[in-house]
Protein 1
Amino acid sequence: MTNHPLKTLIADYSLLNELAENFGTPLYVYSSERLSTNLNRLNQALADNFDRYHICYAVKANSNPHLLKLLHRTLPAIGSDCASPGEIYAARLAGIDPAHSIYTGNYESNEDLKYALENGISINLDDSTSLARLARIGLPGRISFRLNPGFGRGMFPHITTGGEKAKFGVPRDKIAAVYQQAVEMGIHRFGLQCMTGSGVLDPDYFTELLTAILEAAREVEAVTGKTMEYISIGGGIGIPYRDEESPIPIDQLMSSLAKIFFSYYNRNDDNCPALWLEPGKYIIGDAGFILSRVTGLKNSYRKFVGLDAGMETILRPSLYSAYHRFLKVGYPDDEPAGKVDFTGRICENTDRQAIDRPFPAVEEGDLVAIMDAGAYGFAMASQYNSRPRPAEILLTNGQAKVIRRREDLADIYRNCDLE
């Protein structure tokens, strides 16, 4: 029996069948109530434990401007965590102030840095070479560097972004030197950022991580004589993708982080840094799902259930072997009739959304929901095999609003001038 927070919605066959009929499938569906609830829960946990804090939503998780605008309405002080000029652009479309946001690139081009600088966003540099490129364009009044503390953790090795095998950040033993270099170039206001992996559900990991970040921050301050204005622990807070997993106890986590933070800094000091957080998946991951239709059934060496949502619709299972819950629309608690592989229509054998998955009996035309697709779902969707990308809709009190229209074949080739 599933315990997913959107289970009641998936059980509403009448509503979801109406969505499928009106908007087609595959279809990305988002719950505005769940999205706002997730953000408010996180904000309250921070407010209960920190006097100075700031949330920057990780736009890479889902960059639809309508969803960003909803987050901004829910929490007007929210900023954006951007990894490209396009994400800065999307956040600005939604009304999020670049001055409240952070740009974290890696191996950035001059054009990337110039766009970030011109938009007035806080620039978080990945390396001393990034500082050299930025200096040729112009220097902002404040920067931060991304720390690689020498360790990391993620749900998969592919999304572990700290440690000796990671391509990101300044090594721990070099972090003070790059800040000193920035001081010598005339920069005197700083933050420190660290992001070591995504999808973590272990609270103890974040306390270990924050301790390492604070140790590095204190060393930088001792060398430069400059106090950090903010210290960011990045994102990485996971969500349960399986029924047997439990959500991270966010209130307990923030309480534990506050005890560590204020053992290094006096919370009553006017110069006490703010804690920054850059969540994506925690806010939007379980607020979205894919509504898909069964296109074919096949008994071969394995049992296959073909869907109109393949790896072009949701890449994570093929890319990471990521697990997503699959629920039969209208009957989310039906008993399995056997094990099947879910596949799409893409001409790749890696086009598997689930393998050996216990599932109820289905027929062609039945509707299936692929859960927890709000983060890194549409953001990774493609036009592979010349399949147009799906529509996205936002549900608010049962009312649907199209927030991205479905592409058609002409959209795929719109920029190909044959004249």
Protein 2
Amino acid sequence: MNSIPAAARPLALVYFLFATALFAQEAGPVDDFDAVWETVAEYYVDGDFGGVSWESMRDEYRPRVQNAPDAEGAYRVIGEMLGRLENDDTFIIPPAVVPELASAAAAPREEEYAGVGVMITEFREVGVVVTGTFRESPAEKAGVLAGDTIIAVDGEPLVEEEGTQGVADRVRGPVGTEVTLTLRDPDGEDRDITITRGRIDLRPSVDARVIRPGIGYIRLPAITVDLVQQASRALPSLLSTQGIALDLRGIGSGTPEAMVVLAQWFLGPTPLGTIITREERFPIPHRPDAIAAYRGPVVVITDSRTSGVAEVLAKVLREYNRASVIGATTRGGSQVAQIVPLPSGGLLHLVIARYVTPKGTVLHTEGIEPDVALPPPDLATIRAGDDPYLDRAEEIIRRGGRL
């Protein structure tokens, strides 16, 4: 969740206060350490700091920052201190890294990129697997198939640490250049395919339609206001369905505002929980005049990449008995974070609030367990184009929503 409660806005003053105090001298890692320690002490969401003595952290880690051989080592020590909070969403970005992030943010956002047009995901104990190809893409034309595991790019084997992002970075390149993928099919046979890179249209699109007789389906790439509005145009065609499968697999971004709109399609004018900081609680705004447009059974599909507002949506719908949740345990991460500038130009990414469900459940970093846990599909199933998650959702809908 990335919407900041009004009470959190004083965090913006943190940088001003430190920068003013240090204006006459060049800021360095020690100054950043002091800023980080003070900011966490004042604003971190958990006043118990995960069970550690935050006061003692200053005495333990400040000398280590002072005595670090170089700036890189000093920021590693600060990162180690923040790691004691055991919250992956609270971390430091050293000043040396910030210019790269700024350049990426300032670059024009293109709707196309130079690649081959594969959709990939990472499967435990298998690797990075092709789950599909874009229509008319170079990969489709070259014969890349769902269920293929990518084991090398241009002859260089993949390493486990790369993950999907590392593979994507290696596959991308200038339009018109070639890349060779070494693929392993579900039967264990390897083959090399050389593909000429092309521009791939990545504009986000919504899939909202009747996919099987009586079965509605809604899939958004992210829960944003624009995409929810796109989906709303298809909603009238789904009103007469026997039930709707709401597919939240892979969704890791979105806004609370959009989540509220989507939730009220199924709930109407219902309270949707609160955001809590260390000191205050802020009800999530909802429209008291909202009308539940759809009243049939809903099945929410999740996987290990579902996080943020998608988790909140799944939890709310289940708490109000409006949906069953099937699939895999979600990633966790329903937290509100603030980016705080540091004196040297670095950044602190700090969790300042958490979500509390309408029934009072605080969502921490652990994920949401489904009502029906399903294993990831095997490669042969992916190759066949089958979707056992969607099949199970249909079964539940056919039974009137009963598990």
Protein 3
Amino acid sequence: MTDGGTAPGTAGAAGLHRVLEPAGVLPQAAQRLDTDPRIRPDEVRIRVERLNLDAASYRQLHTAHGGDPDAIRAEVLRIIGERGKMHNPVTGSGGMLVGVVDEAGPESPLGLEPGDRVATLVSLTLTPLAVTDGLTGWDGLSEQVPAQGHAILFARSIAAVLPDDMPVPLALAVMDVCGAPALTQRVVAAQKGAPTVAVLGAAGKSGCLSLAAARRAGASRVIGLVPTADEEERLAASGLADLVVRADARDPVAVAAAIGEPADVTVVCVDVPGCEHGAILATAPGGTVVFFSMATSFPAAALGAEGLAADVTMLIGNGYVPGHAGTALELVRSEPAVRALFTSRTGPDSAE
């Protein structure tokens, strides 16, 4: 590690001492992190079992390498090896992981004990990570990556002990997107009356959770937008949306036409870039757009709203809302349609 004492105040708690370059930035903005397994008194070392790459990052890697699993695996290994974290330089995103607590420093505030199986609820873009198995157990064909190695959590990191009533792949997939339903619930509940809510990318993991959360928070009408006939059929059969429509979320006019009467709240859960303007057009004056995708462009959203003279409030979901993991897990437990959509994406071992 870079030095021996505990760094004071916020800098130490946030992991500034793990930054190797450039100096003075926090771990998320760093080019390279220190992955030394020796921990400080307020750190926790995790024995890694599985990574979950975020959807935008995996899609970019898959596209860039033409779906070649060996090339995708090599690229992920290169990024982790060079940066000391999983931080996709193209999308700027990472994901999260599951592992077992190896050692917890005596001053760690996270409440974790050796032997706890946990999911980290902070991004891999700021988590020191070393992989030791060459990712040989990963076929390169999914976002979930069996792995061996270690990761470091800081005092201001977030982690949750995995529930014992769900298979690990399912729990990991839920926790990876748990910020989306929690913030959707908060935003919808704060609206006057019973708002109409539109979710773009509604058949995906964060999308189906957001649909369920919006309805529970008091939405009068929930609309799900999807890109393909297959997703339209599956989402319609689930009953999670009052109306399921199909359009390319990157086509603003098509999105607005598909949604029809503009929504009071629009939630964007699409993992490709270029969906900002459609979301703005689909939202009523005075409404709110919530962007959850890591593919979102802030300039495109801000300048697009300005250019359209759109009086909308735009929020960037930062992945953390107090109680977010519990909110998402409860939705999966209590909504069979949500669980079915998740397991259709995470594989048969998550349906047990």
Protein 4
Amino acid sequence: MRKFTTAILTAVFMSFASCSSPSSEEVTQAVEEAAAPEYEMGFCADSLEVVEGKVKSGQFFSNLLGGLGMSQKDAYDLTMACDSVFDVRTLRVGNDYRAYYSLDTLKYLVYDRDRASSIVFACQPPYDAWVYEKPVSIESRYADVTINSSLWNDMRDAGVSPLLILSLSDIYAWTIDFFGLQKGDRFRVLYDEKICDGEVLAVDTVRYAVFTHGNEDLPMIMFDQKDGGNIWWNEKGESMRKAFLKAPLQYSRISSGFSYARKHPVTRKVQPHTGVDYAAPKGTPVMSIGDGTVTSVKYEGAGGNTVRIRHNSVYSTAYLHLSKYAKGLKAGQRVRQGEVIGYVGSTGRSTGPHLDFRVWKNGTPINPLKMESPPAEPIKEENRDMFEEAAAKYKARIDTIQARSFVEVLLDRI
């Protein structure tokens, strides 16, 4: 107790060190502020009873408060008091909340906006609301995954967050066909994770990766030139971003390849299939593989709902069997690489939801899986030395981790 009193008096003395003669009221206020404990969410939850729940379908902020014991007028007053902090229209079904009571009176409501932040409502006058941000840490990780069955399953079996797959597929989208990964392919990755309450919120940054296919290594280095442009490079300092994406939709599987002699699954006749079919659930977003101009948005008989895009004087693409088009999409519109142009469906002559994707080069159909794409602008020469230094540092780090792991395996066998 003596140490506590000394700390308070020290705080009071420091706060008035520059003042000649503080008033007794100022001293009392300073002592109270120094002695007041700081609570994690802004109030003492330990002394209150708590009721937990989830926002139900059809539930609004007002009737949520009503169900927790607030009158209609009090609920309205609280809503008006917190409108600058929380838009009650953003209340989401399924999100958690905790109601804190004292003697059956609702004192506080804590609504989990997401996994890292909550809105705290003071439910007694003077009504108030504030944001509580949970502590989030950034932790470095290393993953070494060899494909045995599928990237998703093998990542999970290795204890790696599936969120890493999405990051890798974005970075390597112009280099690797993620639909054609083979047994024995390998990823080694240095990356950061955002952690909150022991859960992975996101893969924050992929810093270095090596994808190995056969005897070929494809390194990726994260290097930010601070110019607002690309930050992902190969070992030569060439951008990982190419003129075209390798695929027009995210992780799925190929159900039919490019062929001039395929038996059609509906007509049962042998006829050319100058495209690639990607099996995916209905509604999966479909993206333009590159910048270009939309030349057609219409229903095309056997092809169903189809979008056609001219990318330049050489390349054009088509996206068939869509369930619907992106809102507002029309012929003559410019689209950017990665922009959603429609959604997977089964319109036209189709046996199930899939995307039939086609590419033409100088008017001749080509196999999308074998299409080559030139690299974008390389790293600036004035940054070359720093880039190579960063690449060497990351490579040495992976080599050290692998060597340590190898030694640990040997020791386990002794």
